[in-house]
Design brief:
single chain, 218 residues, alpha+beta, 21% helix, elongated
Length: 218
């Protein structure tokens, strides 16, 4: 089968690679691995490769998904192994397999986050955040149309906040698409609604993908 899906990690220094640069990196990796991509037809042919959910710069992930088509028949396991030897630091192919489910079926993403504080009482911050997200939370976000209010609590579920040394750990399930929720909006909601508990720094990581019924999406 020439139509495959790759699940891969993007961690470490690789989190600072932009989506466009990641696409170029992937294409070069296929070339180095000797696994030829299929190209589109027409006046401007391009490789048939796409990331299902582009990842924001600075966000890590252990569950990224990429669809691609090959110019020939290859064993899926061998493709993942050969790509692994051609990837830069921080990008690790986990498995390749036939892409049988449509990308539009991907609905939810589980994320882990860390809200770092230099001076704030993290126990108080965790309690305040949990109370905030127990109700309706709106946040101002920037889109292509400009700034607007977004009902964040409608598209975030299973929120958990736990206090640690100088940080609050966050666990949540957020909407993957229609609408796409950037986990950074969780930190933005605290800055806008609880400025006394605004984190000094926030980082997030994608850990799993699900369909609308919360079954793992592959």
């Amino acid at each position: 089968m020439d139509k495959l899906r790759l699940r891969f990690e993007k961690t470490g220094r690789a989190i600072y690679i932009s989506h466009l640069d990641l696409m170029h990196t992937m294409q070069r990796a296929f070339l180095r691995a000797g696994v030829p991509l299929k190209y589109s037809e027409g006046f401007n042919p391009h490789p048939l490769i796409s990331i299902l959910l582009p990842l924001s710069v600075g966000c890590a992930s252990v569950c990224e998904l990429m669809d691609f088509r090959l110019a020939g028949e290859f064993d899926a396991a061998a493709v993942a192994e050969r790509l692994g030897a051609a990837m830069p630091e921080g990008i690790v192919p986990l498995e390749a397999y036939p892409s049988e489910r449509k990308a539009k079926e991907l609905k939810w993403i589980r994320v882990d986050g860390v809200l770092e504080y230099d001076r704030a009482d993290t126990a108080a911050a965790a309690a305040a955040a949990a109370e905030l997200f127990s109700g309706n939370v709106t946040v101002t976000r920037r889109t292509k149309r400009g700034e607007g209010e977004f009902a964040l609590s409608d598209w975030v579920r299973d929120m958990e906040f736990s206090a640690g040394e100088g940080a609050v750990a966050v666990k949540a399930v957020i909407s993957a698409q229609e609408p796409t929720v950037n986990p950074e909006l969780i930190a933005a909601a605290l800055r806008q609604n609880l400025p006394q508990f605004a984190p000094d720094f926030a980082r997030f990581s994608r850990v799993e993908t699900y369909d609308a019924d919360m079954k793992i999406f592959r």
